[in-house]
Amino acid sequence: MTPESLIASASINIGLAILALWLFSVLKKQPRNAIIYYARLLSDRHRADLPLHSSFSLPRFLPSVAWIPRAFRVPEDDILRRHGLDALVLMRLFKFGIRFFTLCSLLGVSLLLPVDYYSESDLPTRKEYSMDAFTISNIARGSNKLWVHFSCLWFISFYALFLLYKEYKEILVKRLQQMRELSHRADQFTVLVRQVPLCPEHKTRTCGVDHFFSKHHPFSYHSHQMLYDGRDIEYLLGKQKKLKTELEEKRETEEHKEISISEEKFREFAHKVSHLQSETMLREKELPVAFVTFKSRRSAALVAQTQQHSNPLELITEMAPEPRDVSWRNLAIPQKILPLNKIGVILAAAALTIFFAIPVTAVQGIAKYEKLKKWFPPAMAIEFIPGLSSVVTGYLPSAILKGFMYIVPYAMLGMAYLGGSISKSKEEIKACNMVFYFLVGNVFFLSLISGSLLDEIGEYFTHPRDIPSHLAAAVSAQGEFFMTYILTDGLSGFSLEILQLGLITFDIIRSCTYGRAKENNTYLFSFPYFRVIPTVSLSILIGMIYAVVAPLMLPFLVGYFCLGYIVYFNQMEDVYETTYDTCGRFWPIIHHYIFVSIILMQVTMVGLFGLKSKPSAAIATIPLILITIAYNEYCKIRFLPSFKNFTIETAVEIDEVDEKNGEIESRYVDAATAYSRNQPCLQRVSIEESPTNLNQPLLGTGSI
């Protein structure tokens, strides 16, 4: 890629970003767009606080930047209080990128960049047509200047490990603080029990649960809530809700004859639902799953983390997810079918990975114009239009790749759902892992192979020991492409995210075709952690690998993370809702992604030092890899268990505070009814209430 192509890519991305941000700052002031740009605030009934311009005035159509400094003024404690620890973890991921790449940029621009540029290159003519003059490729083989890169590699690695340790420690403190503040949550008293056996006497599972826990935990067991196969009830409830909506619309138009018919149908459905929700009928629909509530958090934590039955395949226990986080459909999947579901997910992910190799290879064909002319001779026609070849090779490949990447997270989330996770948060965590490794394998490694090693792909299989050298050569050759990728993902990607162009277009089409929705019908969605975390982590991986190889990329990454922080803070405040809070369980997977990035950076440098005929530097880098691996193992022992488990110490401390305040009984009583209120098949719809408000019967609850 030539400097002209890079400049063309930067110009297009900067232009699109400015246009998108300008449009956003104007469109968000328009009252009709509040359902898009203030969806969360509208759902919280804060309409009076919205900065909307209802009158026709000039400020309403002028862009403003007041929303930008707001992101940096809000303290972390406010983010934690308003949005939970998961949101704070994401914001700290952006802050990690800003801190890390700011120091790396200062080091790279002031030290590495001059060393690379003023070096005796093996290919002196490259400066005239390539960006390689600003990378490690410009340094001659065997040059002692490579020791500068070696020293920077050690410094950058230790700085990254220091930041990771600091983040892990601080987020763990925040997690314990958050768990104390969320002492009212039902999941702290509740254990999810699967593979519940039948009661020997009454031949029902609800008696089986009650009998077992009354016998083995007589002083701490409080009650339980069985799960039911209520698909037929849910179907009828859906019909009821639809009828209720139609009934309210007819009441507004005063269609009395049709109102009486709809009311009669509604009562008919209500009678069927009431019959199916009777205790006798529900017992026939029992599933071998129960939510068991205890009288203290300590008891719940002990039961969840110990084996309850001599047969480990029965009475499988774990801490229950909070009621709003439960994936009710997946809990109904039989335990013996779950392994088949997981195998199916793996096969589907593999098929998607293979399919995605086609567009990635095509994108790299566009990026390498010389190869493109060889494979597709008509492409030479773009040379006759001045500047077009720079746009095609500089901007188009990364834009196409980003377009294909947009659908991948949603496909992976669907696969994670089919995998049988018990909660939405676990589905998103699984989706994060699948998306990250998909991006690393397809977007990063496949881009390297198809871009620079297409003719040598067989070497990987015939000479596996040469993989570090091949990786190093590929990384060095593809620096310009990934620089344009960072520009596209950051400037254009973040700007389009905040603009919500798809929703704006859909809302305009809807308003022009079948009318506006009601005022309270906002476009409210949960925060897409499964899409944001892997994408940002991939940018960290690319930045780390190129931190020593191509330091010119580092300032772009600082801008990437600053813009990302501003954009997603705004989305978190105004647009997306918080549907669950795992108390920071996303951080261990983020830590793992960054650890993988550090290892790949170090392995790449081992290969580069070998290519540059500096074996002593390559050998001296191996201890650094071992230190990094040992550090990661220490973090797994020191921090990871506290994120996976509800520690007995923390549970006892919170219990003692509640006992002192006389609140512990009310806490576990509320926890006992929380899951029945949220189980879909136990809901009821009444004509007197609004369509969104439901009565929650406490049927099928057993207690001592």
TrEMBL record:
Localization (cell): Membrane
MF (Gene Ontology): calcium-activated cation channel activity
Domain CSC1/OSCA1-like 7TM region: start-end pairs: 342-609
Domain of life of the source: Eukaryota
Membrane topology annotation: Multi-pass membrane protein
Domain CSC1/OSCA1-like cytosolic as annotated: residue spans: 188-330
InterPro entries (UniProt xref): Csc1-like, CSC1/OSCA1-like_7TM, CSC1/OSCA1-like_cyt, CSC1/OSCA1-like_N
Family in the record: Belongs to the CSC1 (TC 1.A.17) family.
Protein name as annotated: CSC1-like protein At3g54510
